[in-house]
Structure formats: C-alpha cells, structure tokens
Amino acid sequence: MKYTKLGNSELTVSRICMGCMGFGDPERGQHSWTVDEEHTREIVRRGLELGVNFYDTAIAYQSGTSEQYLGRALRDFADRDKVVVATKFLPRTPQEIESGVTGQQHIENMINTSLSNLGMDYVDLYIYHMWDWKTPLYDILDGLDRVVKAGKARYIGISNCFAWQLAKAQALADKEGFSKFVSVQGHYNLIFREEEREMVPYCREENIALTPYSALASGRLSRTAGSGDTKRAAEDAYAKFKYDATAQQDSVIIDRVSELAEKRGVTMTEISLGWLLTKVSSPVVGATKLSHIEGAAKAVELELTADEIAYLEEPYVPHPLAGVMAQNKPENADKKHVWTTGDQTIK
24-33, 78-87, 266-275, 284-293: which has the minimum mean pLDDT? Predict the structure, then answer.
C-alpha cells in the first residue's frame, strides 16, 4: 500500500479509502444489498491487512448501522490512532427548522450520534454530506469549527458541492477564523468526469484533497456488461438513476477498460482505479466482498502509460449532473432525499 497526506491536514492516508456504504443492516436503510456485521468484519480486517488505514462511512448509511459495524470492527482489529475514520452529516430536516434547531445545534447532535454509533471519542474527518440550502453557511461553518475545537473531529471535509460553493465556504472560513475544508468527496470516475471542469483545478490550486466516491461507477467499471449482475446491480435503484441514462455512450469507455485489462493481464478494477489514482489523493472504493478490497489494493501498484491514459479518456463526452448533485437543488430542499438518518434517534 502507498500513502499520502490528505490535503492541508496532518493526516496520512492510504491511497485507497474503504467505502462503507455497503455495510449495515439491510432491513434498516436505503439499500437492500448491504452486508451483515460478520461479513463487514471480514472485509475490514482484510483491508487492514492490506494496509488500508482510511475508512469512510456516514450517519445516513443504513440508519447508522454502517457506523456501528465499522466502529466495532476497528475497535477489535486496529489501534485507534493508526486508522483515519471519516463520517458525514446531513442537512437540517424541515422538522428541525420548524422547531428552531440551529445549524450549530444540528451539527452537534449529528456528531454526538455518530460518535455513539462508532463507539469513538472523535473522528479524523467530519464531512458535510451535501449542501444545506436552508441553513446559513455561517452556521454550518461555525458548527463545524466548534466540533473541531471540542476535539470531536480533527479536520473537516465536504461532499457533493460545486466549486463555487467550496470557494465561498473557504473564503468565509478564512474571514471568520473557522476551520477550513481539507478534502472534497465528489462524484468522479472514468465515465463521469464533470469534476474536471472546475473542482479538480480549484482543489489542485488550494491543495484540497480529492477523495471521490463511486470510483468504479457502482461496479460498471469493474466488469463488462452482461458478465453477471451482482445483487447491488440488480437492486440499487439509485445507481441506476446515476448511470443508466448514459449507458450507451459510457459503454465505449468500459470496452476500452476491458481491452486494456486483457492486454495488461490485470482486472478492469485495476485499470479503472489506476486511472483515477493519477488524478486524486484517495478514491473511496466500496467493498462488499473480500475480492473488492483486494482488487482495489492491487490498483495502487499499477502504473498506466501516458498513451493508455489518453486512450481511456478520449471517448468521454459531457454528462448531465447525476445522483446527489442532480437531486439536491434549492427547489427540492423540502423534499425527502435518498439519504436520511432513517429510524435513528438523534441526540
């Protein structure tokens, strides 16, 4: 495994971040394809053996059970100061706004619940999961700064935002002396490269780490079409929402991934992640099988040539926004989002 500094932080992270969205009770949350605690523990343990020290979860994943499973596994298999744990919080709900819960109070409630789920005193990275259109930015940044000053998070990150939003937040944080974001977790992979327009150059200029999710496009970049669907591929309606509309144009790139994988004698996962690793600090790679994290770890050792990179990139055409960025708009702020805290009691 190789390691890198996470942006402007003092955190040293593995070049692969284990995404924990696939962990949690399938009876309690957005997804029916998640794995139980026994399999979670096997996958986390294997990740640690392979040198993965960076783990990403969220309060929204399966009503907090992803956080719970991950926390217990890391407690049993790792020293707390040897791993980097990230989790995320959601915007205020209409009910919280109606009852007068401030942005600062909301963030305190969120972090306290996540820490309880994880069984930890702090997280290394606390991530703003998606833009909160109904809460003043000052309140969000103030709330996050209080979390850092209280020792409940070492650093803060942001996910699912536009470059202008991040620039606005960083400028306000700088003006007010608040903690600044050290990482961005956006939607970025070989078949969805819209982050390259503004976010990637902005983060490069400001030394903000890119830790993209959907690194393998919900598995589409790890296997050829028709080669055997997984449970997730069959049941994940949200992934279909993100990728099905552009499947035909994306197939050209996926075919090139397959072609290069066969030529190099490696897996499609290694080619797809090998490309992404030339662009970002640490992609978030979901794992619901041991082979998933094993394949991701191998990708760190793969070096693509400039010609191979150009060959993979050449067929790309612009894509419409998809997933959270398409759904989380000001006019939809009062609507229920796919990511919620589920049946948890937030305290």
Answer: 24-33
Residue 70 has pLDDT above 60, yes or no: yes
Q: Would you say 43 and 35 are in contact if contact means Cβ atoms under 8 Å apart?
A: yes
Q: Say yes or no to pLDDT of 233 above 80.
A: no
Query: Is the model's pLDDT at 180 over the cut of 90?
Result: yes
Contacts with 210 (C-beta within 8 Å, 6 or more apart), sequence order: 183, 184, 186, 188, 195, 199, 200, 203, 279, 280, 281
Residues 84, 13: contact at Cβ < 8 Å?
yes
C-alpha closest to that of 193 among 209, 164, 222, 214: 214
Q: Which two tokens stand for residue 55?
A: 């783990």
Catalytically active residues, by annotation? 61
Q: Are 290 and 62 in contact (CB under 8 A)?
A: no
Sequence-distant (6+) residues with CB within 8 A of 254 are 191, 220, 221, 224, 225, 268
Q: Give the type of residue at 222.
A: S
